[in-house]
Design a protein that fits this description.
The complex is a heterodimer of chains A (about 80) and B (about 375). With about 80 residues, chain A is of the alpha+beta class. Helices cover about 20% and strands about 30% of the residues of chain A. Chain A has a single domain, classed as Eukaryotic RPB6 RNA polymerase subunit. The model of chain A has no long low-confidence stretch (mean pLDDT about 90). Chain B folds into four domains: about 45 residues; about 110 residues, PTS-regulatory domain, PRD (Orthogonal Bundle), CATH 1.10.1790; about 80 residues; about 50 residues, DNA polymerase, domain 1. In chain B, strands 8-9-1-10 form a four-stranded antiparallel β-sheet. In chain B, helix 3 packs across helix 12 and helix 4 runs antiparallel to helix 11. The chains are: A alpha+beta (about 80), B alpha+beta (about 375).
């Protein structure tokens, strides 16, 4: 059950960014983590990839306008 | 050469350019010229800073909305499926209703089986939920003996391939405090333990009718159809979590039209994709044309907080920073009183609150005043 959801056609690739990479992204867009879109700790995908609270998740979406587009979400516990 | 343009123009355009330049055998100089023109053209189409994209999006949905079907159509027929279309469906998607009014699923089959109509039909029959009511002719209450006698519909049972052992087992599992047995005449008898009054037996009878025997709970109708050279099962009712566990089902493509169900099984990103997919389906079905960027924008907005929020007063509007902006949407008193109680401050950073106060709004040419800071004490 757990791993098979990752292969779904609606699910873009999620990856956990390391501290340095996250820092780079925040600097690039001049934002703090609080301002970024969120993803819940309870989210099925977060459970499978095993991210912790406060991690920055890079999501590589398939975009109908530009093939691929990166998106970032911060893991929050609510 | 092409590499240097990556990031300046979208990958999709670059891909298309590469294809066309190969077909037309462009020389290096020609390529360079085309790319340059492409970049210029693309830049001129970019949205200007300060453009009110939200309003453009709202208008882009509003106008086609006036041309959409306003009512749910009901088709006569046994195997035809009714699905909400047009404006009611669009409202349902953007309001993020917890329950879709007509939940349905598209079930895809794994590779070798998706070409085989027999396999698809067999699987469809297995997925459809079967309740005891469909397998029986009569539910009789025997007042003297205090039990319910169920006379079975042998023909339906044979058609569906269900044995009475299975039925007795599921009855035993559902009603723990009863005695379930087979009568001499081949009927099933269910008797509550201990002393019971007639009213309780009557209530039990109604519950017994709805006993779930086989299939996937919630799926009330199935319809295998041919779609793009493969067989797909469309259903009424949905239960994504259980269906993707089945063996023959292709769990990478099977999808439900209930966005909340998608969110709970596949997470928020899949839910966003599902919002886009469903909204696009409605608009295309109606023969209308709305730019996909508008749909993407709303979907992003609805899913940015980690859960799906509708464009309603309890959804995305409640996340607005400004008290006045929230109050101007719906239920103003509630918002103003709550804000006063908790001592909220309004910094007048956005559009609506400034309109209320008759001030220039930070949009378009009104925006730079906020962005640029003048140098002080220049000598």
């Amino acid at each position: 059950m757990e791993e098979i959801i990752l292969k779904h056609r609606f699910l873009p690739k999620h990856e956990i960014l390391s501290e340095e990479e996250a820092e780079k992204i925040l600097k690039k867009y001049n934002v703090s983590k609080r301002q970024l879109p969120k993803i819940r700790l309870k989210d099925p995908v977060i459970k499978v990839i095993g991210a912790k609270e406060g991690d920055l998740i890079k999501i590589t979406r398939k975009s109908p306008t530009s093939k691929e587009s990166p998106y970032y979400r911060v893991v929050v516990d609510e | 050469m092409i590499e240097s343009y990556k990031g300046k123009i979208p990958d999709l355009l670059i891909e298309e350019f590469e294809k066309i330049s190969k077909e037309d055998n462009l020389t290096k100089i020609q390529k360079e010229a085309v790319l340059k023109a492409l970049e210029k053209r693309y830049d001129s189409y970019k949205v200007n800073p300060g453009e009110a994209v939200g309003i453009v999006t709202a208008e882009s949905f509003g106008e086609p909305g006036t041309q959409m079907t306003l009512k749910v159509f009901h088709f006569a027929g046994v195997s035809e499926l009714n699905v909400t279309v047009g404006l009611p469906r669009l409202i349902e998607i953007f309001d993020a209703r917890k329950e879709a009014s007509t939940p349905s699923m598209e079930i895809y089959l794994k590779k070798p089986y998706n070409k085989d109509i027999k396999k698809a039909k067999k699987l469809a029959a297995l997925i459809k939920e079967v309740k005891l009511r469909e397998l029986s002719n009569e539910f009789l209450i025997n007042i003297i003996k205090g039990h319910i006698e169920i006379s079975l519909n042998k023909r339906n049972m044979r058609d569906l391939g269900i044995k009475d052992d299975l039925m007795i087992n599921s009855l035993k599992n559902k009603f723990k405090k009863t005695i379930v047995r087979k009568s001499a005449g081949g009927n099933i008898i269910i008797k509550p333990e201990g002393e019971t009054i007639l009213k309780d037996i009557y209530k039990l009878k109604e519950k017994v009718k709805e006993t779930f025997i086989r299939g996937v709970e919630g799926i009330t109708q199935v319809l295998p159809i041919k779609q793009n050279n493969e067989f797909v099962i469309l259903t009424m009712g949905s239960n994504l979590k259980e269906v993707i566990k089945l063996d023959l089902v292709d769990e990478t493509r099977t999808i439900s039209n209930n966005i909340f169900e998608v969110a709970s099984v596949f997470g928020i990103e899949a839910a966003r994709e599902s919002v886009v997919y469903e909204a696009k389906k409605v608009i295309e079905d109606q023969g209308l044309d709305v730019d996909v960027r508008h749909i993407l924008f709303i979907a992003d907005l609805m899913c940015s907080s980690g859960v799906v929020k509708g464009v309603t007063r309890s959804g995305v509007t409640s996340e607005k920073e400004s008290v006045l902006a929230r109050a101007s949407f719906e239920t103003p008193l509630k918002h103003l009183v709550n804000a006063a109680l908790s001592g909220e401050e309004d910094f007048l950073n956005s559009v609506v609150e400034n309109v209320i106060l008759n001030q220039p709004v930070p949009l378009g040419t009104g925006l730079p005043g906020l962005v640029a800071t003048m140098k002080k004490n220049v000598k």
